[in-house]
Amino acid sequence: MSTFPVLDVVVALVFLYLLFAVTCTAVNEAIASAFNRRGRMLRQAVEHLLGDPALATAVYRHPMVASLGGVTRADTPASAPLPSYIPANRFATALTDHLTGLAAVTDAAAVEKGIAALPPSAARQLRALFALSQGDVHDFHARVSEWYDQTMDRVSGWYKRSVSRQTYVMAIVFVLVFNLDSVQLFNRLWSDSAFRQAAVDEARARIAATGTAEVPVMEYTGGASPTAGTPVQTGTVSLTDSETRLLTSLRGWDDDRMRLRTARVLEGETTGVTFRWLLGVAAGHAIGWLVTIFAISLGAPFWFDLLNRFMRVRSNGRAPGGIDDARSRA
Hints:
mainly alpha, elongated
């Protein structure tokens, strides 16, 4: 038995928060992938950038861009997969090639003619960039790339805010469906030593798996680019079988359903009994639910980092870098 029961409770609770956050992240990514949210948001941003849906479609059908969505032909149908990321250099080349038409992509006169043929909403910005480049196609290409990159920085912010909102919604649904009450979880971890030890053992196993995960959780820092993110280890992205069994051992709504059945036996199956039960559930779980929702919104990388710190404290028996270290150096 552990000599640090309070620390074990904290470690186990942090670990459960990590599993909840990992599950929400996996669901979010599955939804984003199923609806290609990155690709759709990028397409909207490109249309806004160019000011002309037809010009955006032409750029997307260029082989250099179409191939990023898994399509290799320029005559892509409208239902073709949208790429989730377009490098600035490819975007600028595809746009310039469209402007020049059959002429060489380095033909300055063809670029100017192509810009003049565009609708006013699309031509205005490109005309200004071409004027600033003083007819140098290479400089024009670089300016288009920079213009695109600046827009992608804003798209990154839009996507992060969108994911943040979706995470909150998913956390609320997750907490209510499975009745993830932090107060209830803390009480069970404190009173049930077997459950607490199982959670601590699983936490130790997940930390030991760091570096062997098939895919790390990514924090995207470069727009929608799948290669411009910072990898953040959380052990494994998916839950192991033993972690899944640990989560399924949570009581969830069992105790509350038992109280409802008891009330119906004693008082009858009336609407008033059910209504009073619902009020009791809301009053009894509200604080615990809110704490869990906030915890999940912090994300899996936050909880994995915190779990690592607490496990080091548990292993060493002292706070790393804290008072004990200061005393040892004195």
